[in-house]
């Protein structure tokens, strides 16, 4: 019997529990024992792990977050040897590392000392280069869309500009896709240089016409030109979205525009996972167990549409993938 250790590295995302569930169920089918490691590599170092059976995962599919907990800790330097010793101590054939860029970095570090693993992509940012979609992205976009639907009515009622801040820097996926799905009137992301004059013109045209409100989606931490920073009293503590709100107010003062700011923050990351996140998580985790069963490791599992892909480890699996140009251009049709 082969033994697999499953752990999470990096931030949580909806659908990780579906992946853990699939790994356990597929493992039982293929006579592969699955050990759940609590709180990432930190938990591994303190021997916080146990065998997972079907009963442990029977009611987790619909739950957000991760039943195993997670940690941002990435083993490096001397700590890598300690992790290798733990792998040998528990007779683990390979690790399944669930997470984003930190998970990929951990896998490469461990590969360098001969610790086998498979990476399953799980990040709401959807910014990993080796996969079309990562676990949690679809739920995050749904949460953004729902927030915009709610804010639309109060923006229209009070004739306000509503600024909605999303996560996802620097890839732009959440802002662009969430904004497109939620009917944003302008989207600002790190994926391309912002045309602030265009944004002001669009808001102005709306107020001159029949739609005297606007929904502006802004990716957290976007770059602001120095002249706008100076004019609008930029403060790192307040962030870019507040400065853009002040800029809109100054540029359109003749209209007496009021603006309000909502940072969606961790609301994007939580909640019950969407159908798509559950499906891709199940596909990728089951496939990872199949790969380990035949001894195929040192690969990242991804999806291309609904098809599973296997990408050998290299430094490129850590690369960022910005939101598609076509999708960025598509949003402009509705401005």
Automatic annotation (TrEMBL):
CC cofactor: Mg(2+)
Keyword Transferase (UniProt): yes
Pfam families: PFK
Keywords: Cytoplasm, Glycolysis, Kinase, Magnesium, Metal-binding, Transferase
Alphabetical list of SUPFAM superfamilies matching this protein: Phosphofructokinase
PANTHER family given in the database record: ATP-DEPENDENT 6-PHOSPHOFRUCTOKINASE 3, PHOSPHOFRUCTOKINASE
Record-linked Gene3D superfamilies: 3.40.50.450, Phosphofructokinase domain (3.40.50.460)
UniProt cross-references to InterPro entries, sorted A to Z: ATP_PFK, ATP_PFK_prok-type, Phosphofructokinase_dom, PKF_sf
Residue ranges occupied by any Phosphofructokinase domain in the UniProt entry: 3-292
Family assignment from sequence similarity: Belongs to the phosphofructokinase type A (PFKA) family.
Name this protein carries in UniProt: 6-phosphofructokinase
Annotated metabolic or biological route of this protein: Carbohydrate degradation; glycolysis; D-glyceraldehyde 3-phosphate and glycerone phosphate from D-glucose: step 3/4
Organism expressing this protein natively: Thermosipho affectus
